[in-house]
């Protein structure tokens, strides 16, 4: 399992990015990916969905997470699949 505390030592991350990363690590479990919705992450972080989306984009750009878009069988969007990398 990724150690969410590594984000605490990175002063380039905002408080929200650190919190979002921690929440994803909790959802991930041991050596697996996770797929919480933006709404679920926002609720866990006590932040707005738009704030969480910005943090996720930044975390992906900074190499903390990978994101795999998911589709439903009908072609609609589903929750992204995330993997914590650090």
Description of the structure:
By secondary structure, the chain is of the alpha+beta class. The protein has one domain (4-84): Winged helix-like DNA-binding domain superfamily/Winged helix DNA-binding domain (Arc Repressor Mutant, subunit A), CATH 1.10.10. The protein contains three helices and two strands. The protein has helices at residues 15-28, 38-45, 49-61; strands at 65-71, 77-84.
In short:
With 86 residues, the protein is α+β, with helices and mostly antiparallel strands. The protein contains three helices and two strands; from the N terminus they run αααββ. Helix 1 crosses helix 2 and helix 2 packs across helix 3.
What best-fitting shape do the alpha-carbon axes yield? globular
Q: Portion of residues in helices?
A: 40-55%
What is the name of the CATH class? Mainly Alpha
- What's the number of domains? 1
Largest sheet: 2 strands, antiparallel
Tell me the structural class. alpha+beta
Query: Which range does the strand content fall in?
Result: 15-25%
**What's the count of strands?**
2
Average pLDDT works out at 92
- CATH architectural grouping: Orthogonal Bundle
First and last CA, distance: 9 Å
Number of helices: 3
